[in-house]
Amino acid sequence: MSWQQLTISTTQEFATQFEALIEDLGSLSVTMTDGASQPIYEPPLETMPLWPQVLVTGLFEEQHDLSLAEQYFQQHINTPDSWSMEIEALEDQVWERVWLDGFQPIKFGSNFWVCSTKHEAPEPNATILRLDPGLAFGTGTHPTTALCLDWLANHAVHGRNIIDFGCGSGILAISALLLGARRAVGIDIDPQALITTNSNAEQNNVLNRIRLYNEKQYPREPQSIVVANILAEPLIQLSDEISALVEPQGDLLLSGLLSEQIEQVMQPYQRFFNFSSPTIKDDWACLHATKTA
């Protein structure tokens, strides 16, 4: 089945109006994206800021009549210089297959690989995490995930217990287990993330060594490695809870923050931790610290 995609390029002022108008035309879905490469990395909680230039896109069935769409918009928003419209046909695709075609195995450390279920092992005797795209964050391609995986692959995790605070797809906890960690705890506020982590752990044959919890029910027993790959604001707000999960002389890994947010994130943890030099990848940062008390 094919589809039609109608895209309005407009300003922040008119974006929500076009969103409603496209819905009224009978779209199956409406999305808003950055129209001028001006990303909003981390908006305040409970806010929904928009970019100065916005692309408002509606998806329609192939047979849906859009011949009068431009006239309809002109009747409701009579400022022709503030927007433009484009309609294009989309061929149906299996989006998971598209992702797999573009994804290549990624190596961390000396012999640890993140691969899809369709790829062959890149090296003999490689340690491999098998992971396909899903509804939860984390496939190893984002800089923050890659920085955490690189740390895990290059440090001694064998026989240790790890907490993955904000586990998403479970990629960090599962990687640690494949690299020799004894047990893992995954914590996430999103029920879909816990479902995805459970599925990925089963696929990688470590389900019997991981326990999953939501943000209210997780055990408070400190462990020797804690990884929190979330965002700067929750890292700051939850610093007491995260700090308490690390045992004395244990390792803390914080990521999901921009390089410009390093000092702000480090500050509430410095009472209990000694920080190493940050690692940076594409303006994203990862912080490692050892607990002193």
Key descriptive features of the protein:
293 residues, alpha/beta, Alpha-Beta Plaits, Rossmann fold, 2 domains, eight-stranded mixed beta sheet, four-stranded antiparallel beta sheet, 9 helices, 27% helix, 31% strand, elongated
Radius of gyration: 22 Å
Name the shape in a single word: elongated
Looking at CATH, which topology of the largest domain would you report? Rossmann fold
Given helix and strand content, the structural type is: alpha/beta
Tally of alpha and pi helices: 9
| Share in helix | 25-40%
Instruction: Tell me the CATH architecture of the largest domain.
Output: 3-Layer(aba) Sandwich
CATH superfamily of the largest domain: Vaccinia Virus protein VP39
Could you tell me the mean pLDDT?
87
Number of domains: 2
What order do the SSEs take from the amino end to the carboxyl end, as H and E? EHEEHEHEEEHEHEHEEHHEHEEE
Name the beta content range. Answer: 25-35%
Return residue spans where pLDDT drops below 50 for at least 5 consecutive residues: none
**Major sheet summary line:** 8 strands, mixed
CATH class of the largest domain: Alpha Beta
Question: How many beta-strand runs?
Answer: 15
Termini separation: 61 Å
Please render the helix and strand layout as text.
Blueprint lengths: L2 E9 H13 L4 E6 L18 E9 L7 H8 L6 E8 L4 H8 L3 E3 L3 E4 L11 E4 L12 H11 L7 E5 L5 H8 L4 E5 L3 H13 L6 E4 L9 E7 L2 H6 L1 H6 L1 E13 L3 H5 L6 E3 L3 E3 L2 E8 L2
Parallel strand pairs: 6-7, 8-9, 8-11, 9-10, 11-12
Antiparallel strand pairs: 1-3, 1-4, 2-3, 5-6, 12-15, 13-15, 14-15
Helix pairs in contact: 4-5
